Amino acid sequence: MSPEESTTFLGPERGLERSRAGVARAAALVRRTTTPLGWGMLAAATVGLGVGYPLGWAELVVIGWTALLVSAFSLLFLVGHPRYDVSIDLSATRTKVGRPVTATVTVKDVSRFRAWNTQVEVEIDGEPVALPITGKQQSQELRIPAEARGVVRVGPVRSVRGDPVGLFRRRARFSDVEEVYVHPRTVSLPPTSTGFVRDLEGQPTSDLTASDLSFHALREYRPGDDRRHISWKASARTGELMVRQFEETRRSHLVVAFGRDEDSWEDATEFELGVSVAASLGVRALRDGRDLTVVTGPVRRPPGAPEAREPENIPSLSAGRLLDGLCDVALGESDVGVDDLASLSAATIPGISIVFLIVGSSPGIREVTSWSQRFGLGVHTVAVVCDPEATPGLREVAGVQVLRIGYLEDLPRALMRGATA
């Protein structure tokens, strides 16, 4: 087949594909721009003309033509395409609960002809806010709320054009979405209170090794031992070569675990207190240079999906990433309770030495103690019960320290009491 014949053969198919694509784009444009009232007006025109003429019903014909003419007249308001240069400048991209930030939105009209029926708006956390445009360029300062922990999305900036009747609306996007992280409340904790194990180089274990920092005992030299660890004084005293033996040391690995299922918390106030406790403990541990893992229940799986085999880790490489990760945690996102969360954490996180298990007031002391004991022997477990407005207290049940706090400010004192108990 020659190139000319190939072009002739493929030409109609390509033309048909382009026609279909054009029809699909037009249909999508109609769906985006037509309001519910507009669909009703188009239905009235279709029914009035489609039924009125065959039945000879003059009233329906009048209604049909009126609806058609009103629709056609309203479409004229969408002719043209305004253009804007938009910038969004945030005073801060990260803040704390109760500290609002400001956003300066600058809009410059670069259209050749200004459309008088165009409105400019910016979305703030999903709610549109109108920006009055009175000239070619205008800046407006907006307050970004920070009443609750979360991620507030600022933008996009859109132009909205419509007709006076409200049959059609055409929107055009002119900016990206900026995010403001509203971090949970935190409280300053003393450096010695976060771990309950005051180790600088590591925590001694019962595992013996030939080279470490914690001296354990002397033993007879064996072939293959490192001669640098020979104790010459002990060898001279016993008449045989003696080498030093050490206890293997490990850095304390701190785990902060809290559930986000609805059964673990009485209400959202308890949950927010729990998130603030987790944030405070995590930030203090990172500042102390400890190995930290912050976990919560995995996100709810759809029906039929396999069960989660490990908890969800909150990024904890730095204090900033930890607080950012806690902004997205919401109550009710998981079906995994604290009991299963403790079992998953004990099975999947290696080298745990200290665990802070954060719970609400719904579970009883026996349940909390039972969950805490799932981490096994040698793991120091502290349960923090968040009970708003309750009197702070400390109890030790079956080797588990149970701290009860009513306010976030009770946490430092409760930890100090637990560390000295």
Structure in words:
The protein has 421 residues and is an alpha/beta fold. It is 32% helix and 30% strand. It contains 9 helices and 19 strands. The chain has helices spanning 3-33, 36-55, 58-75, 232-238, 268-287, 319-327, 338-348, 365-372, 411-420, and strands at residues 84-90, 94-96, 101-109, 118-124, 127-131, 137-144, 150-162, 169-173, 178-183, 203-209, 214-220, 242-250, 253-258, 291-296, 312-314, 354-359, 380-386, 393-397, 400-405. It has a 7-stranded mixed beta sheet, sandwiched between helices. Strands 2, 4, 5, 7, 8 and 9 form a 6-stranded mixed beta sheet that branches. It has a 3-stranded antiparallel beta sheet with strand order 1-3-6, with no helix packed on it. The relative contact order is 0.09. The model is unreliable at 1-10 and 192-215 (pLDDT under 50).
